[in-house]
Amino acid sequence: MNVAIIGTGYVGLTTGVCLAYIGHSVLCLDTDLSKIEALQAGKIPIYEPHLEDLLAEAQRNLRFTTSYSEAIPDADVVFIAVGTPPTASGSPNLEYLSQAAQSIGEHLAGEFTVIVNKSTVPIGSGNWVGAIVRRALEQRQGRKANGAFGIASNPEFLREGVAIGDSLYPDRIVIGSDEERALEILYTLYRPVLDQTFPAPVFVPRPEDKGAVPLVSTDLASAELIKYAANAFLALKISFINEIGQLAERVGADIREVARGIGLDSRIGSRFLSAGIGWGGSCFGKDTAALVATASEYGLKMPIVEAAREVNCRQRDHVIEKLLQELKILKGRTIALLGLAFKPNTDDLRESPAVEIAQKLMVRGARVKAHDPIAMDRFQREHCHLGVELCPTVEATVEECDAVVLVTEWTEYREVDWEALAPAMRSPVILDGRLILDGDKLSRAGFRYIGIN
Ligand code: UDX
To answer: Which residues contact 158 (CB under 8 A, 6 or more apart)?
Structure first.
């Protein structure tokens, strides 16, 4: 099938590369010429493990362009995967989405094209996008645009850092449309993934127990709501364990044991129960805010989702409170942050806990040093105004510091030889924001080990 993808961010690029890999002819469009030139040269503008390898393998089916007139007329399916960044009110900015819809309408020429919302868009956006496309198409043609296109929603569930695995071996695929023909085309498009008939790439092997992928084929509004409900549920699962973590600390329980004990109940499940500093990233914060904003348009309150957001903010404050308890005064202290990305295996800093914690520390007069295996260049570009001192190694970061805060659970931080580093620190205090270190071992080595819960 001929596929056009509008937007080459995490979602658009991963989707485009994966669809090309399974055999479709894909044209990725972005209005940013420098991005397209880099991609044409085989370079990925984001850090995502194995995306560049897969792009090399899928190259013969993959092209990149800035031109709508090249991308749209021959496409059977057009994915809209442009950014929908949050606004101050919590509702997403739909400017890029509306521009994309307008340009698609201006260039549609096929007999029937499916236009798919892949970006996380507010519920009802399918209809809205359809109206923009129709108006632009009718203006160009000077006649009614009946039957020229169908609108669908195909929410994306990929996680950064493991985006290829999540796309090739998903738990489920959700497609939603009010037109049967659009659903049939999307079913055909995803058939190799649903049936798992494509050869697995060697660098991201197929999980051994991977069977056929369930398909949820539904109406437009349900597909749109599934995306928000899934992200909100995951976010509140994390906030729930963090809330229980606060109580665990008071009663002397170990939250890791509690999480294990409840997670083994198959009705609950053990994933997304890791307590710690809380969630960041481009989705959970934005989507929970948008869900609350959409509900309020209908006069509805979402107290559970709001509470999940509140608990998540509290986790950040908790870091500062713990440091204050330990060090009494933060003014003039040096605090080392290990990890800047919002999670390991990405350089994404959107809503990263590290950024917020650094800001809170600096407001209180602390000096902040930081390290990240991948995200330092990006931090330098996007947050240099904060005044955080970036250090090339863990050793240099912890030197002369009054406390270390482990913010992101990169593998290399699990393997640090803390005993060897202790003499370089002003005081051997470790605040483990992800509960991944061996507290007993660190205590025996003379550290003051503090867990986040
Ligand atoms: C999320 C969803 O998982 C994905 O389905 C959706 O498409 C996009 O949003 P992503 O933001 O890439 O994916 O990362 P995810 O692995 O979900 O982690 C989000 C945040 O939650 C991270 O900051 C992570 O550190 C935190 N987290 C995750 C926890 O604090 N505890 C956990 O148990 C799991």
So the answer is: 10, 11, 14, 166, 167, 170
Q: From the CA of 277, give the closest atom in ligand 1.
A: 30
Atom 17 of ligand 1, nearest CA residue: 159
Query: Which residue among 28, 283, 391, 401 is the active-site one?
Result: 283
Tokens standing for residue 397: 């970061």
User: Running DSSP on this structure, what letter comes out for residue 221?
Assistant: H
Residues facing residue 448 across a β-bridge: 429
Check residue 242 and give its pLDDT. 98
Q: Which domains does the chain have, with CATH numbers?
A: 2-210 (3.40.50.720), 228-309 (1.10.1040.10), 314-451 (3.40.50.720)
Average pLDDT over residues 72-99: 90
Q: Region 399-428: what's the mean pLDDT?
A: 95
Find out whether the beta carbon of 281 lies less than 6 Å from any atom of ligand 1. Answer: yes
Calculate the dihedral angle through the C-alpha atoms of 244, 247, 252, 256, rounding to the nearest 10 degrees.
Answer: 20
Q: How far is the CA of 72 from the centre of ligand 1 (A)?
A: 33
Which mutation among 51, 167, 169, 238 tests ligand 1's pocket best, with the greatest number of atoms within 8 A of CB? Answer: 238
Residue 242 Cβ inside 6 Å of ligand 1? The answer reads no
Burial class (CB in 10 A: 0-12, 13-18, 19+), 151: buried
Q: What is the pLDDT of residue 327?
A: 97
- What pLDDT, on a 0 to 100 scale, did the predictor assign at position 30? 97
Is 18 considered catalytic here? no
Residue 120's pLDDT band, with cuts at 50, 70 and 90, is: confident
Q: How many helices and strands, by DSSP H and E, does the chain display?
A: 18, 14
